[in-house]
Amino acid sequence: MADLYRTIAAPAEATVTEKRSKFLAFAYPAATVDEAMERVGELQRKYYDARHVCYAYMLGADRATFRANDNGEPSGTAGKPILGQINSLELTDVVVGVVRYFGGIKLGTPGLIAAYRAAARAALDAAVVDERHVMRRVEFTYPYASINDAMRLTRLPGVRVVDSVYDNVCRLVLDVEADRAEALERAVADVAGASLCI
Q: Is residue 14 helix, strand or coil?
C-alpha cells in the first residue's frame, strides 16, 4: 500500500443531457460505507421523483472496499461506468451518485453506459482532488511526570492528537503519517515510563 492516496476535498456536481434524458451527477467525500450510503440516501430522498439514482463508491487507502449499483437500469450500464471513472482517476474515499430523469427516448445499453460515464466524470472533474497521507494510530501511556516529553511528540511533523487522558497514568492517542510511524514509536520509547498500547 502506498503512503499517499487521492480523494476529493469537497462535494462537487455536474449535469449531462443525452437525448432529453437528464443526468445529475454528485461526487462526495466519504470515509465509510455508512457515510457513502447516507449520501446516496439523501439523493434518493431529494430526487424521489427520478427514474433512477445509481451510484458507486470506493473506500480505504488500499481501495479494497467498493460497490456499484445500477438501481434498476440494465445490469452493468450505470454503477459499473460510474465506478470506472472513480478508478480511472485512482480516487478513494469517494461516492458518486447519478440521478436520471428519463427524457422519453431510450438510450440503449451503449448510450446508457456512455451517459453515466460522462456524468460521473463531469462531477469528478468538477471536484478538487486532494492527495493525502495514509495514517497509522499510535497509542501509549506514560506517567504524569513525563508529560512535557510526551507533549513534545504531539508537535512532530505529520502527527495529529486523536485523544488524551491526563491522570496519574496519562494516555495519548495519535494519528501519524504511515511513513513516520516507526520514528514516532522510537520517540515514545525515549519518554520515561512510556509504554505503547498494542
A: strand
pLDDT tens, position by position, 92-123: 999 999 999 988 888 888 999 999 999 999 99
Specify whether the backbone of 67 is left (phi greater than 0), alpha (psi in -120 to 50) or beta.
Answer: beta
Angstrom distances, CA of residue 158 to CA of 32, 136, 137, 150, 179: 23, 10, 12, 16, 9
Kindly report the pTM of this predicted structure: 0.76
Q: Strands, E, within 36-167: which ranges?
A: 52-59, 65-69, 94-101, 129-133, 135-143, 159-165
CA Rg value for the chain: 22
Residues in the chain: 198
Going by C-alpha positions, the residue among 100, 81, 86, 79 that lies closest to residue 25 is 100
State how far the Cα of 30 lies from the Cα of 7, in Å rounded to an integer: 9
Give me the residue label for grid cell 501511556. 141
Q: Are residues 1 and 62 in contact, defined by beta-carbon separation less than 8 angstroms?
A: yes
